[in-house]
UniProtKB/TrEMBL annotation:
Belongs to the deoxyhypusine hydroxylase family. This is Deoxyhypusine hydroxylase. SUPFAM superfamilies: ARM repeat. The gene is LIA1. It comes from the Eukaryota.
Protein backbone atom coordinates (compact mmCIF):
# COMPACT_ATOMS: atom_id res chain seq x y z
CA UNK A 1 0.00 0.00 0.00
CA UNK A 2 0.97 3.62 -0.42
CA UNK A 3 -0.05 6.72 1.45
CA UNK A 4 -2.11 9.35 -0.34
CA UNK A 5 -1.17 12.98 0.30
CA UNK A 6 -2.43 16.28 -1.03
CA UNK A 7 -0.25 18.31 -3.41
CA UNK A 8 0.36 20.77 -0.57
CA UNK A 9 1.54 17.98 1.75
CA UNK A 10 3.82 16.58 -0.93
CA UNK A 11 5.29 20.06 -1.45
CA UNK A 12 5.90 20.31 2.30
CA UNK A 13 7.73 16.99 2.33
CA UNK A 14 9.80 18.01 -0.70
CA UNK A 15 10.73 21.32 0.89
CA UNK A 16 11.82 19.56 4.07
CA UNK A 17 13.84 16.88 2.29
CA UNK A 18 15.59 19.32 -0.04
CA UNK A 19 16.13 21.90 2.70
CA UNK A 20 14.75 24.72 0.59
CA UNK A 21 14.75 26.97 3.65
CA UNK A 22 18.45 26.37 4.18
CA UNK A 23 17.94 25.71 7.88
CA UNK A 24 16.28 22.27 8.14
CA UNK A 25 18.09 19.91 10.56
CA UNK A 26 19.37 16.71 9.03
CA UNK A 27 17.20 14.43 11.15
CA UNK A 28 14.06 16.25 9.94
CA UNK A 29 15.17 15.76 6.35
CA UNK A 30 15.61 12.04 7.05
CA UNK A 31 12.11 11.87 8.51
CA UNK A 32 10.69 13.54 5.41
CA UNK A 33 12.59 11.09 3.19
CA UNK A 34 11.06 8.04 4.82
CA UNK A 35 7.62 9.65 4.82
CA UNK A 36 8.05 10.14 1.07
CA UNK A 37 8.99 6.48 0.82
CA UNK A 38 5.59 5.65 2.31
CA UNK A 39 3.92 7.80 -0.35
CA UNK A 40 5.75 6.30 -3.34
CA UNK A 41 5.06 6.91 -7.02
CA UNK A 42 6.87 8.58 -9.90
CA UNK A 43 6.77 12.06 -8.39
CA UNK A 44 8.43 10.82 -5.22
CA UNK A 45 11.20 9.16 -7.27
CA UNK A 46 11.83 12.51 -8.95
CA UNK A 47 11.89 14.38 -5.62
CA UNK A 48 14.30 11.90 -4.05
CA UNK A 49 16.50 12.05 -7.15
CA UNK A 50 16.69 15.84 -6.78
CA UNK A 51 18.25 15.34 -3.38
CA UNK A 52 21.26 13.56 -4.86
CA UNK A 53 22.75 16.99 -5.58
CA UNK A 54 23.12 17.53 -1.82
CA UNK A 55 26.67 17.69 -0.43
CA UNK A 56 25.97 15.27 2.48
CA UNK A 57 27.24 11.75 1.68
CA UNK A 58 25.08 10.36 4.48
CA UNK A 59 21.90 11.87 3.06
CA UNK A 60 22.75 10.79 -0.49
CA UNK A 61 23.42 7.27 0.78
CA UNK A 62 19.93 7.17 2.31
CA UNK A 63 18.37 8.66 -0.82
CA UNK A 64 19.86 5.86 -2.91
CA UNK A 65 18.63 3.28 -0.39
CA UNK A 66 15.07 4.63 -0.62
CA UNK A 67 15.16 4.67 -4.43
CA UNK A 68 15.87 0.95 -4.31
CA UNK A 69 13.22 0.22 -1.70
CA UNK A 70 10.56 2.05 -3.72
CA UNK A 71 10.76 -0.68 -6.35
CA UNK A 72 10.03 1.80 -9.14
CA UNK A 73 12.06 1.28 -12.33
CA UNK A 74 11.90 5.01 -12.97
CA UNK A 75 14.84 5.14 -10.54
CA UNK A 76 17.02 2.79 -12.60
CA UNK A 77 18.76 5.44 -14.77
CA UNK A 78 19.19 7.71 -11.74
CA UNK A 79 20.90 4.98 -9.72
CA UNK A 80 22.98 3.88 -12.70
CA UNK A 81 24.28 7.41 -13.09
CA UNK A 82 25.26 7.57 -9.41
CA UNK A 83 27.19 4.32 -9.74
CA UNK A 84 28.89 5.49 -12.95
CA UNK A 85 29.66 8.81 -11.23
CA UNK A 86 30.66 10.77 -14.36
CA UNK A 87 31.34 14.00 -12.43
CA UNK A 88 33.13 12.38 -9.51
CA UNK A 89 30.74 13.93 -6.99
CA UNK A 90 29.73 10.71 -5.24
CA UNK A 91 31.96 8.92 -2.74
CA UNK A 92 32.26 5.14 -2.63
CA UNK A 93 29.68 4.87 0.17
CA UNK A 94 27.04 6.55 -2.02
CA UNK A 95 28.03 4.57 -5.12
CA UNK A 96 27.84 1.33 -3.12
CA UNK A 97 24.32 2.18 -2.02
CA UNK A 98 23.30 2.96 -5.60
CA UNK A 99 24.59 -0.46 -6.68
CA UNK A 100 22.70 -2.15 -3.85
CA UNK A 101 19.56 -0.24 -4.82
CA UNK A 102 19.90 -1.47 -8.41
CA UNK A 103 19.89 -4.97 -6.94
CA UNK A 104 16.79 -4.11 -4.93
CA UNK A 105 15.00 -3.07 -8.14
CA UNK A 106 15.87 -6.54 -9.46
CA UNK A 107 15.56 -5.52 -13.11
CA UNK A 108 17.71 -7.40 -15.60
CA UNK A 109 18.27 -4.05 -17.34
CA UNK A 110 20.51 -3.15 -14.39
CA UNK A 111 22.92 -6.05 -14.93
CA UNK A 112 25.08 -4.40 -17.59
CA UNK A 113 26.06 -1.41 -15.47
CA UNK A 114 26.60 -3.56 -12.38
CA UNK A 115 28.88 -5.98 -14.26
CA UNK A 116 30.83 -3.03 -15.61
CA UNK A 117 31.94 -2.17 -12.06
CA UNK A 118 32.77 -5.65 -10.77
CA UNK A 119 36.43 -4.56 -10.86
CA UNK A 120 35.94 -1.06 -9.48
CA UNK A 121 38.93 0.32 -7.52
CA UNK A 122 36.66 0.67 -4.47
CA UNK A 123 36.28 -2.66 -2.67
CA UNK A 124 32.84 -1.84 -1.26
CA UNK A 125 31.58 -0.84 -4.72
CA UNK A 126 32.83 -3.96 -6.51
CA UNK A 127 31.62 -6.24 -3.70
CA UNK A 128 28.19 -4.61 -3.76
CA UNK A 129 28.00 -5.04 -7.53
CA UNK A 130 28.85 -8.72 -7.11
CA UNK A 131 26.05 -9.21 -4.58
CA UNK A 132 23.56 -7.17 -6.63
CA UNK A 133 24.27 -9.23 -9.76
CA UNK A 134 23.71 -12.39 -7.72
CA UNK A 135 20.42 -11.04 -6.39
CA UNK A 136 19.07 -10.01 -9.78
CA UNK A 137 20.00 -13.34 -11.34
CA UNK A 138 18.42 -15.21 -8.41
CA UNK A 139 15.24 -13.11 -8.42
CA UNK A 140 14.72 -13.76 -12.12
CA UNK A 141 15.32 -17.51 -11.84
CA UNK A 142 12.48 -20.01 -11.34
CA UNK A 143 13.58 -20.47 -7.70
CA UNK A 144 13.60 -16.74 -7.09
CA UNK A 145 10.23 -16.15 -8.72
CA UNK A 146 8.68 -18.88 -6.56
CA UNK A 147 10.19 -17.58 -3.33
CA UNK A 148 7.93 -15.74 -0.89
CA UNK A 149 9.26 -12.84 1.20
CA UNK A 150 9.47 -13.24 4.97
CA UNK A 151 6.51 -11.15 6.20
CA UNK A 152 8.36 -10.38 9.44
CA UNK A 153 10.93 -8.33 7.50
CA UNK A 154 9.24 -6.05 4.94
CA UNK A 155 12.43 -4.55 3.49
CA UNK A 156 13.99 -5.55 0.17
CA UNK A 157 17.21 -7.20 1.31
CA UNK A 158 20.50 -7.35 -0.64
CA UNK A 159 20.18 -11.14 -0.70
CA UNK A 160 17.33 -13.54 0.07
CA UNK A 161 17.66 -15.58 3.24
CA UNK A 162 19.17 -19.04 2.82
CA UNK A 163 16.91 -22.03 3.49
CA UNK A 164 16.34 -22.63 7.19
CA UNK A 165 19.16 -24.45 8.93
CA UNK A 166 20.92 -24.74 12.30
CA UNK A 167 22.48 -21.55 13.64
CA UNK A 168 25.91 -23.17 13.80
CA UNK A 169 25.68 -24.22 10.14
CA UNK A 170 24.58 -20.78 9.00
CA UNK A 171 27.32 -19.13 11.06
CA UNK A 172 29.93 -21.33 9.39
CA UNK A 173 28.60 -20.46 5.93
CA UNK A 174 28.41 -16.74 6.74
CA UNK A 175 32.02 -16.64 7.93
CA UNK A 176 33.44 -18.80 5.12
CA UNK A 177 35.55 -16.49 2.91
CA UNK A 178 35.80 -19.14 0.17
CA UNK A 179 32.07 -18.87 -0.55
CA UNK A 180 30.69 -16.17 -2.89
CA UNK A 181 29.59 -13.05 -1.01
CA UNK A 182 26.04 -13.54 -2.24
CA UNK A 183 25.86 -16.94 -0.53
CA UNK A 184 27.45 -15.59 2.66
CA UNK A 185 24.85 -12.80 2.71
CA UNK A 186 22.10 -15.39 2.33
CA UNK A 187 23.37 -17.14 5.45
CA UNK A 188 23.58 -13.78 7.22
CA UNK A 189 19.95 -12.95 6.52
CA UNK A 190 18.86 -16.45 7.50
CA UNK A 191 20.48 -15.83 10.90
CA UNK A 192 18.56 -12.57 11.11
CA UNK A 193 15.32 -14.47 10.59
CA UNK A 194 15.75 -16.17 13.97
CA UNK A 195 14.67 -12.83 15.44
CA UNK A 196 15.71 -10.45 18.18
CA UNK A 197 15.11 -12.95 20.96
CA UNK A 198 17.72 -15.44 19.78
CA UNK A 199 20.90 -14.58 21.66
CA UNK A 200 22.73 -17.37 19.84
CA UNK A 201 21.83 -15.98 16.39
CA UNK A 202 22.71 -12.41 17.40
CA UNK A 203 26.07 -13.53 18.77
CA UNK A 204 26.71 -15.50 15.57
CA UNK A 205 25.98 -12.38 13.53
CA UNK A 206 28.26 -10.31 15.77
CA UNK A 207 31.10 -12.68 14.89
CA UNK A 208 30.79 -11.22 11.40
CA UNK A 209 32.29 -7.98 12.68
CA UNK A 210 35.65 -9.76 12.48
CA UNK A 211 35.42 -10.08 8.69
CA UNK A 212 37.92 -8.21 6.52
CA UNK A 213 35.21 -6.63 4.35
CA UNK A 214 33.82 -3.30 5.52
CA UNK A 215 30.77 -3.94 3.36
CA UNK A 216 30.14 -7.22 5.16
CA UNK A 217 30.56 -5.60 8.58
CA UNK A 218 28.24 -2.73 7.69
CA UNK A 219 25.52 -5.21 6.69
CA UNK A 220 25.76 -6.88 10.11
CA UNK A 221 25.20 -3.49 11.75
CA UNK A 222 22.25 -2.79 9.45
CA UNK A 223 20.67 -6.12 10.40
CA UNK A 224 21.10 -5.30 14.07
CA UNK A 225 19.14 -2.11 13.41
CA UNK A 226 16.35 -4.21 11.91
CA UNK A 227 16.32 -6.67 14.79
CA UNK A 228 16.45 -4.11 17.61
CA UNK A 229 17.94 -6.77 19.86
CA UNK A 230 19.50 -5.68 23.14
CA UNK A 231 21.99 -8.51 22.72
CA UNK A 232 23.64 -6.61 19.86
CA UNK A 233 24.36 -3.38 21.77
CA UNK A 234 27.85 -4.23 23.10
CA UNK A 235 29.20 -5.14 19.66
CA UNK A 236 27.59 -2.08 18.07
CA UNK A 237 29.18 0.19 20.68
CA UNK A 238 32.54 -1.35 19.86
CA UNK A 239 32.13 -0.61 16.13
CA UNK A 240 30.98 2.98 16.67
CA UNK A 241 33.82 3.79 19.05
CA UNK A 242 36.60 2.26 16.96
CA UNK A 243 38.45 5.15 15.28
CA UNK A 244 40.02 2.87 12.66
CA UNK A 245 36.74 1.20 11.69
CA UNK A 246 35.39 2.13 8.27
CA UNK A 247 32.99 5.09 8.26
CA UNK A 248 30.19 3.11 6.63
CA UNK A 249 30.31 0.53 9.43
CA UNK A 250 30.34 3.17 12.16
CA UNK A 251 27.45 4.96 10.45
CA UNK A 252 25.30 1.82 10.44
CA UNK A 253 26.27 1.04 14.04
CA UNK A 254 25.20 4.50 15.18
CA UNK A 255 21.83 4.32 13.45
CA UNK A 256 21.25 0.80 14.77
CA UNK A 257 21.90 1.98 18.32
CA UNK A 258 19.49 4.88 17.84
CA UNK A 259 16.79 2.55 16.55
CA UNK A 260 17.23 -0.01 19.32
CA UNK A 261 16.91 2.83 21.83
CA UNK A 262 17.80 0.86 24.94
CA UNK A 263 20.83 0.30 27.14
CA UNK A 264 21.07 -3.42 26.60
CA UNK A 265 20.14 -6.50 28.57
CA UNK A 266 18.86 -5.54 32.01
CA UNK A 267 21.20 -6.61 34.77
CA UNK A 268 24.16 -7.32 32.46
CA UNK A 269 27.44 -7.00 34.35
CA UNK A 270 29.38 -4.31 32.50
CA UNK A 271 32.63 -5.33 34.18
CA UNK A 272 32.60 -8.62 32.27
CA UNK A 273 32.60 -6.84 28.90
CA UNK A 274 35.62 -5.52 26.98
CA UNK A 275 36.20 -1.83 27.67
CA UNK A 276 35.01 -0.72 24.23
CA UNK A 277 31.67 -2.50 24.77
CA UNK A 278 30.85 -1.02 28.17
CA UNK A 279 28.22 1.62 28.76
CA UNK A 280 29.21 4.94 30.35
CA UNK A 281 27.07 6.87 32.81
CA UNK A 282 24.09 8.01 30.73
CA UNK A 283 24.05 4.85 28.63
CA UNK A 284 23.93 4.54 24.85
CA UNK A 285 22.40 7.99 24.41
CA UNK A 286 25.46 9.51 26.08
CA UNK A 287 27.70 7.72 23.58
CA UNK A 288 25.63 8.99 20.64
CA UNK A 289 25.70 12.54 21.99
CA UNK A 290 29.45 12.36 22.47
CA UNK A 291 30.13 11.27 18.89
CA UNK A 292 27.52 13.63 17.41
CA UNK A 293 29.72 16.61 18.30
CA UNK A 294 33.22 15.12 18.43
CA UNK A 295 35.37 17.21 16.13
CA UNK A 296 37.78 14.35 15.44
CA UNK A 297 34.98 12.09 14.20
CA UNK A 298 34.37 11.82 10.43
CA UNK A 299 31.38 13.87 9.26
CA UNK A 300 29.45 10.72 8.30
CA UNK A 301 29.83 9.40 11.85
CA UNK A 302 28.81 12.72 13.44
CA UNK A 303 25.77 13.08 11.19
CA UNK A 304 24.73 9.45 11.77
CA UNK A 305 24.83 10.01 15.52
CA UNK A 306 22.70 13.13 15.14
CA UNK A 307 20.11 11.15 13.21
CA UNK A 308 20.40 8.27 15.71
CA UNK A 309 19.60 10.62 18.59
CA UNK A 310 16.38 11.55 16.78
CA UNK A 311 15.56 7.84 16.40
CA UNK A 312 16.20 7.27 20.10
CA UNK A 313 13.96 10.18 21.05
CA UNK A 314 11.20 8.89 18.74
CA UNK A 315 11.33 5.42 20.30
CA UNK A 316 11.00 6.94 23.77
CA UNK A 317 8.57 9.80 23.10
CA UNK A 318 5.47 10.68 21.09
CA UNK A 319 6.38 14.38 20.91
CA UNK A 320 8.11 14.31 17.54
CA UNK A 321 8.62 16.49 14.49
CA UNK A 322 6.19 15.84 11.64
CA UNK A 323 6.55 17.64 8.29
CA UNK A 324 2.77 17.29 7.84
CA UNK A 325 2.22 18.99 11.20
CA UNK A 326 -0.39 16.56 12.45
CA UNK A 327 1.19 14.10 14.85
CA UNK A 328 -0.76 12.06 17.35
CA UNK A 329 0.83 8.66 17.72
CA UNK A 330 -0.94 5.81 19.45
CA UNK A 331 1.33 3.49 21.45
CA UNK A 332 2.24 0.32 19.57
CA UNK A 333 2.62 -3.15 20.97
CA UNK A 334 6.07 -3.71 19.50
CA UNK A 335 8.65 -2.61 16.95
CA UNK A 336 8.42 -3.41 13.27
CA UNK A 337 11.50 -5.07 11.83
CA UNK A 338 12.63 -2.04 9.84
CA UNK A 339 15.12 0.70 10.69
CA UNK A 340 14.48 3.16 13.50
CA UNK A 341 14.05 6.03 11.06
CA UNK A 342 11.48 4.09 9.05
CA UNK A 343 9.54 3.30 12.22
CA UNK A 344 9.46 6.94 13.27
CA UNK A 345 8.45 8.12 9.80
CA UNK A 346 5.76 5.45 9.56
CA UNK A 347 4.27 6.58 12.86
CA UNK A 348 4.26 10.19 11.74
CA UNK A 349 2.69 9.50 8.37
CA UNK A 350 0.08 7.21 9.91
CA UNK A 351 -0.88 9.88 12.40
CA UNK A 352 -1.18 12.60 9.78
CA UNK A 353 -4.51 13.56 8.27
CA UNK A 354 -4.03 11.44 5.15
CA UNK A 355 -5.79 8.52 3.58
CA UNK A 356 -4.44 5.18 2.43
CA UNK A 357 -4.85 3.68 -0.99
CA UNK A 358 -4.02 0.18 -2.18
Amino acid sequence: MSVQVTPEQLDALRATLLNTSGSTPLHERFRALFMLKAVGGDEVVDIVAEGLADPSPLLKHELAYVLGQLGNLRALPVLSNVLINPTGEHCSMVRHEAAEALGALSAEEGLDVLKRYLNDPSREVRETCEIAVGKIEFDNSPEGKARKQNPDFPTIDPAPSAPSSEISTLRTEMLNPSLPLFERYRAMFALRDFGAGSKEAVEALADGFGDGSALFRHEIAYIFGQLSSSYSIPSLLSRLRDPVEDDMVRHEAAEALGGIASDGVEGEDQDTLPVDQRLPHGGVLAVLREWAVKESAPIVVRESCQVAIDMWEYENSTDQFNPLDSLSVEPSSGKANTTGMERSAAAAIAAASVGVKA
